[in-house]
Amino acid sequence: MSSTRPWRAQRVLHPVPLNSVGDYCSSAGGLGLRAASTMSPAEIIEVVLASGLRGRGGAGFPVGRKWATVADNAVALGEAPSVVVNMAEGEPGTFKDRAIVRNNPYQVIEGALIAAKAVGAVRIIIATKAEFATEVARLRAAIDEVEGLGKVPDAVTISLFEGPSEYLYGEESALLEAIDGRGTFPRVTPTYRVGLDGGEQFSRLGVGPALVNNLETIANVPKILARGAAWFRRVGTTESPGTVVCTVTGDTRHHGVAEVRFGTSLGRVLRAIGGGAQRGRSVKAVLSGVANPVITGAQLSVPVSYEGMRSIGSGVGSAGFIVFDDLTDMVAVAAGVARFLSVESCGQCSPCKHDGMRLATLLASVAANTASERELLEIDRKLGTVADGARCYLATQQEVLLRSILVAFGDEFDRHVTRALPPVGPTMIAELIDFEGGSTAGRAVLDERHRSKQPDWTFGERYSGHVPIEIRSTRHGSSVP
User: Which of 28, 160, 213, 300 could join 267 in a cystine, given CB atoms 3.0 to 4.6 angstroms apart?
Assistant: First the structure.
């Protein structure tokens, strides 16, 4: 590690934008695909397995195992799989995939082509959001340039899908549903068994499995193939080799995105990327997006790694760290989290939507000093039922994150009930749109539209009383009333 900045690494987050394939090749781009061309699919998968690369979308699943499973299922089903790059980035506090694409979209295309060879895919779909105009333009131009230079095998097609804005679009089965022309509603059948069924855009495709990998994950692949598994493991930890692209926002001196070696302490990450807490303030809590239990200010020495975060009962997630200082009311944070997740729930699982909405109402009442001990007891009961029968992880997020705040900061809930704390409204929890002043030392811009978003996913003045699954159309590529 560098003696001056041992936290920093630059493997997938290129320091300056690469504006052409020529720029990319001058920076050693293309070597991974060249190496893969001399290997069998099984050999490619073996290298990825040996590297220890884990998914950067949140779950941290071993990438080589996922590739091997998809390849095996494709053979068993006799259907060619699809490679789908998930860039439906909507986790609050996260900007990593967009930062990668803005500086170097070519490594994503190269990684996807390697993945396609490894699993026997003939189609690659990069799925992003239509609202990511800058990234859509970068990806579309890069795909056209790579295809124009004959870098894509004749048997493989690459396309860009511009999907809706909903949070659940990032869930991999809901993402495939959107590509197939339906609403962004998670399904039960796993994507590694059944992928795309055709949809409106892909009417001639089969129903083979889909390899769905997060964009940052795919961006790591070219250098692993070019330089080998041992090189990849030179930084990071045994269980969490390599690097992770972190985003830091909230109550820090500035906000930004940077690539960090796994194993760096969370406190150092917050200081290096965000400048630490404001002068005279201290870190009270950190959210790793809205998918993992809260991290308290006493736990900042924890390494940013899968095993490190697991040791304190939390998780890396997509490495988007939202910081709250000692002036923050954590009941307001809980109310904001509950509102975001309950609004974004699709309603397929009734407890997730209805118990989630009730939790948001109850927590807002506690924050506003209009609740009693009875409401606290009801919150506890609803946390025990909100994930019942859930088909995706969103309901569990509500349970584990909200309960962790209640446990860690229970005294604040009690003090709101006794009116010892002033009333507050829910904290704004929403998608990160961009940065003012740049993504290295700027200020986060949140999606203010979410303040008026209704639980039916409309932006009208009133909630219709219907959940999204009841009222959304199946028109391709979007979800509209």
Answer: 300
Nearest to 399 by CA among 413, 419, 416, 385: 385
Q: What is the largest CA-CA distance in the chain?
A: 70
Spatial separation of the C-alpha atoms in residues 209 and 119, rounded to whole Å: 10
- Beta partners for residue 288, in sequence order: 321
User: For the chain, percent helix, then strand, then coil, each to nearest 5?
Assistant: 40, 15, 45
For residue 426, the SS3 value is coil
Amino acid sitting at position 8: R
Q: Which of 76-85, 176-185, 432-441, 468-477 has the lowest mean pLDDT?
A: 468-477
Neighbouring C-alpha atoms within 13 Å toward the C-beta of 177: 23
What is the pLDDT at residue 201? 47
CB 180 within 8 A of CB 161: no
- Give me the residue label for tokens 């239990």: 293
HSE at residue 28, side-chain half, CA atoms within 13 A, is: 11
Q: Which of 53, 44, 7 is nearest to 274 (CA)?
A: 7
Asked whether residue 5 carries a pLDDT value surpassing 60, the answer given is no
State the DSSP string of 320-381.
EEEEEETT--HHHHHHHHHHHHHHH--SSSHIIIIIHHHHHHHHHHHHTT---HHHHHHHHH
Residues 87/126, Cβ–Cβ less than 8 Å: yes
What's the average model confidence in pLDDT over 321-334?
Answer: 98
Say if residue 2's pLDDT is above 90: no
The pair of structure tokens assigned to 8 is 């920093």
Q: Which residues pair with 110 in a beta bridge?
A: none
Per-residue pLDDT for 205 more than 60? no
Amino acid at 187: R
295: alpha, beta or left? (left if phi > 0; alpha if psi -120 to 50): beta
Backbone angles phi, psi at 443, to 5 degrees: -130, 135
Say if residue 274's pLDDT is above 80.
Answer: yes
Tokens of 382: 């609803």
User: Taking the alpha carbons of 434, 435, 436, 437 in that order, is the dihedral positive or negative?
Assistant: negative
Residue type, 25: C
pLDDT at 98 over 60: yes
Q: Sign of the CA dihedral 63, 69, 72, 75?
A: negative
What does pTM read for this prediction? 0.93
